[in-house]
């Protein structure tokens, strides 16, 4: 499954791009690897070529063009654009993809999509994670040195003129991804849908955080094993991955949006909605994580669809239980038949809610997530209790246990205030944190 990635750079030294492509670098620090004598270590295998550079080096050709047109002279200017096409590791053994063939595909893609730009194309046979995925690096100078025809992703006349700069817009990325998919289709390679997002979206930062965390965990486990001590879990999970697992678990156990938000509160996760989009705030953060950064499975539309499916599945289960034949029910034992008693559809009268002792739970070691959930639970329990007392006319201090007096049901504002005051003194288990 080929993937497509873009990185913009403000580095004025174009030689650094070529150095990264041709010499070995540390995958975590991105610093060049040196041998015992302090010299750069060349990469073992790669293919490299240039476009629109003439007989000059890529870095020299780019700097000459920038001086000619007076562009890319400021520090904040984007000097180059780096595009990466990564092919599926299975393309090698299954579809005959080689480094030379991948280099040809990269050169063709560069000529078709970035005409008029000076570019360097380099193919590596493996990735950072030693997975065997062949990938092509395409680095172009942001400045265009020739007039080019209007391509489908261009929306301004300046996008075709020499002396103007390349813009990587959202429309351009959509077009490039579609072209990569078409490229793989014509070459008979594996490909996934790059245009409709992914269920789990892993950003570049999260990818490297997972890599570094896994390396640190492996190092720690090796030290523990050498000492004969028990090791920790062998798989490192980022905070975003833990949040994804919590959301999935909660979503499988919820039927409404209210259930979903309340269940997440038990883990300390708060659901926020802005402009029709969901975001999730964890206890250790002040800024919520948007669903877009987690994946398409966690946005509002996907959550509502999952909740609707859960509700339909619950209704189907209830219907199948209610449809048990009468003779089968009568022939079963009394205990078994009671388990199949249909649920009453009539609304039940509100009962007195059971409160949660938040202080005791905090003393037991419960975290802030549980405390938030307990706070909302106590508020609902207090509401149910108050409605029950009000319905049964138990808030009046002069209410007799033997029955109710109709003449005393109509109270003045002063008596109503006395009743409320009496309720708080008579029922001290109310959580006063809400008042």
TrEMBL record:
Pfam families: Relaxase. Residues 329-348 have a biased composition (Polar residues). This is MobA/VirD2-like nuclease domain-containing protein. Residues 318-356, 396-415 are annotated as: Disordered. Residues 49-146 form the MobA/VirD2-like nuclease domain. It comes from Intestinimonas butyriciproducens.
């Amino acid at each position: 499954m080929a993937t497509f990635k873009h990185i913009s750079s403000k580095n004025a030294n174009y030689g650094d791009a070529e150095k990264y492509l041709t010499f070995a670098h540390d995958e975590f620090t991105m610093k060049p690897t040196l041998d015992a004598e302090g010299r750069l270590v060349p990469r073992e295998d790669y293919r490299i070529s240039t476009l629109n550079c003439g007989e000059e080096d890529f870095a020299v050709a780019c700097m000459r063009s920038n001086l000619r047109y007076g562009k890319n002279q400021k520090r904040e200017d984007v000097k180059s654009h780096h595009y990466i096409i990564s092919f599926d590791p299975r393309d090698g053994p299954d579809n005959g993809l080689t480094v030379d063939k991948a280099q040809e595909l990269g050169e063709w893609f560069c000529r078709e999509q970035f005409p008029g730009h000076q570019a360097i194309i380099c193919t590596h046979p493996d990735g950072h994670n030693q997975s065997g995925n062949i990938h092509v690096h395409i680095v172009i100078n942001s400045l265009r040195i020739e007039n080019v025809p209007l391509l489908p992703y261009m929306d301004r006349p300046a996008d075709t003129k020499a002396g103007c700069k390349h813009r990587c817009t959202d429309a351009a990325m959509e077009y490039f991804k579609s072209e990569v998919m078409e490229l793989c289709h014509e070459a008979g390679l594996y490909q996934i849908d790059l245009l409709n997002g992914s269920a789990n979206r892993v950003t570049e930062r999260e990818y490297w955080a997972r890599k570094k965390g896994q390396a640190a965990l492996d190092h720690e486990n090796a030290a523990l094993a050498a000492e004969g001590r028990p090791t920790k879990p062998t798989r490192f999970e980022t905070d975003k991955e833990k949040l994804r697992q919590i959301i999935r678990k909660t979503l499988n156990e919820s039927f409404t949006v209210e259930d979903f938000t309340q269940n997440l509160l038990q883990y300390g996760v708060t659901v926020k909605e802005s402009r029709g989009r969901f975001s999730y705030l964890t206890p250790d953060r002040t800024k919520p994580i948007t669903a877009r950064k987690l994946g398409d499975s966690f946005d509002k539309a996907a959550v509502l669809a999952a909740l609707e499916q859960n509700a339909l599945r619950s209704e189907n289960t209830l219907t199948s239980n209610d449809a048990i034949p009468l003779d089968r029910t009568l022939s079963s034992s009394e205990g078994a038949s009671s388990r199949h008693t249909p649920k009453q559809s009539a609304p039940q009268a509100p009962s007195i809610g059971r409160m949660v002792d938040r202080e005791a739970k905090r003393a037991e070691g419960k975290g802030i997530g549980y405390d938030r959930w307990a706070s909302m639970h106590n508020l609902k329990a207090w509401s149910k209790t108050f409605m029950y007392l009000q319905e049964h006319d138990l808030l009046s201090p002069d209410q007799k246990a033997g029955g109710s007096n109709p003449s005393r049901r109509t109270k003045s504002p002063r008596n109503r205030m006395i009743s409320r005051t009496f309720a708080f003194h008579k029922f001290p288990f109310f959580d006063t944190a809400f008042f």
